[in-house]
Specification:
Elements: E1 9-11, E2 14-16, H1 19-33, E3 39-42, E4 45-49, E5 52-54, E6 57-59, E7 62-65, E8 68-71, E9 77-79
């Protein structure tokens, strides 16, 4: 169990942090089959702040990891 009480779930040999995240994955697969979305990515990373030095001290980069990145036929992208 995770620190927030969510139970990990495995679908298609992918382990998700919660039942809700796993259900959303299944929803996205269905949306892709219907042509509502063109594709989706799992766990996309976004660099919020690169590694930097200040006063001789090196600070690590800061990243955000989303659950999904969804691509739509009209070119839109959505981060979930």
């Amino acid at each position: 169990m995770t620190k927030y009480g969510a139970k990990k779930v495995t679908i298609d040999e992918i382990t998700f942090d919660s039942k809700l995240e796993a259900r959303y994955y299944e929803y996205l697969k269905d949306q892709q089959l219907k042509g509502e979305i063109t594709k989706f990515e799992l766990q996309p990373k976004f660099e919020l702040l690169p590694t930097f030095k200040k006063n001789g001290v090196t600070y690590r980069k800061i990243e955000y990891v989303a659950d999904f990145k969804v691509f739509y036929p009209d070119g839109r992208e959505e981060i979930v």
